[in-house]
Amino acid sequence: MNTILITGAGRGLGYELARQYAADGWRVIGTVRSAQAKLPAGVERQIVDVSDRKQIAALASALRGMALDVLFCNAGISGKRGMALGSFDYDSWEEVLRVNLLGAAAVTEALLPNILAGERKVIAMMSSRLGSIAEASGMTLPYATSKAALNMLVKGLAATLASKGAIVVALSPGWVRTDMGGATAPLAPEASVAGLRKVIGGLRAADSGKFLSHDGSPIPW
Ligand SMILES: NC(=O)c1ccc[n+]([C@@H]2O[C@H](COP(=O)([O-])OP(=O)(O)OC[C@H]3O[C@@H](n4cnc5c(N)ncnc54)[C@H](OP(=O)(O)O)[C@@H]3O)[C@@H](O)[C@H]2O)c1
């Protein structure tokens, strides 16, 4: 049976990822921040705030010896709404970097033995088109810088882990109707996640270090 761990699985894209993989017969470990968070049927709960290194260490201890085919670092925040040049809130910006960048790095580092013990050895980072330097518009800079840095983490890990057979990718879900994406976003979580799962299912060693959209098309860095 294939096993996946998804961070931030209590709502939004993480919930839908957990739901679809579980429905497909995968063993799914979903991390949430609160014991009250709702998870799809069959999904195993772990409590983790990805900005809390002690909780990440406890997660690694709890999962010691468990092979993971896919690690999906999905948890993310956009920071205070409306931040722009002239009104940056640096505490909020720091929090965005702590969750979106350092959280993903720390979870990956802690669970590396689990991933390398897995058959597929896939590390998927939930990036965003807003993290593309080539397409930079100046919009939502705190969030965009966190995803651009996450993309560099992907490239670096792909190079570092190539000899160990790991496949590391940055994935963009598109603009999706979640709490973060808002009600007017064009994509439903079901469609975005179906696309992301197809992309993950088709990954080969040569894809490591790529930045891919939910429809499989490459995004310029
Ligand atoms: N929606 C879009 O259009 C869109 C576009 C591009 C990229 N993305 C990316 O997709 C990912 C999921 O976003 P979403 O749209 O599903 O957003 P969402 O509905 O706001 O969900 C965010 C998820 O991240 C979790 N999370 C936040 N801070 C956390 C922390 N410190 N530790 C652990 N978990 C934490 C939340 O858990 P709680 O319930 O505990 O808060 C929640 O499960 C994010 O990385 C986001 O940047 C989304």
List keywords for this structure.
221 residues, Rossmann fold, seven-stranded parallel β-sheet, 14% strand, binds NADP nicotinamide-adenine-dinucleotide phosphate
Strand content: 5-15%
How many domains make up the 3D coordinates? 1
Percent helix, as a range, is: 25-40%
Instruction: Profile the largest sheet.
Output: 7 strands, parallel
Along the chain, the helix and strand elements come as EHEEHEHEHEHE
Q: Which value, in Å, is the CA radius of gyration?
A: 16 Å
Structural class designation:
alpha/beta
Give me the CATH superfamily. Answer: NAD(P)-binding Rossmann-like Domain
Low-confidence stretches: none
N-C termini distance: 34 Å
Shape designation = globular
Q: Number of helical segments? A: 5
Describe the structure.
By secondary structure, the chain is an alpha/beta fold. The chain has one domain (3-213): Rossmann fold, CATH 3.40.50. Helix content is 38%, strand content 14%. It has helices spanning 12-23, 53-62, 90-117, 141-161, 189-201; strands at 3-6, 27-32, 44-47, 70-73, 122-126, 167-172, 211-213. The chain has a seven-stranded parallel β-sheet with strand order 3-2-1-4-5-6-7, with helices on both faces. Helix 5 (189-201) links the parallel strand 6 and strand 7 (211-213). Helix 2 (53-62) packs parallel to helix 3 (90-117) and helix 3 (90-117) packs parallel to helix 4 (141-161). The chain is globular. Residues 7-8, 10-14, 32-33, 37, 49-51, 74-77, 99, 126, 128, 172-173, 175-176, 178-181, 185 line the site of NADP nicotinamide-adenine-dinucleotide phosphate (NAP).
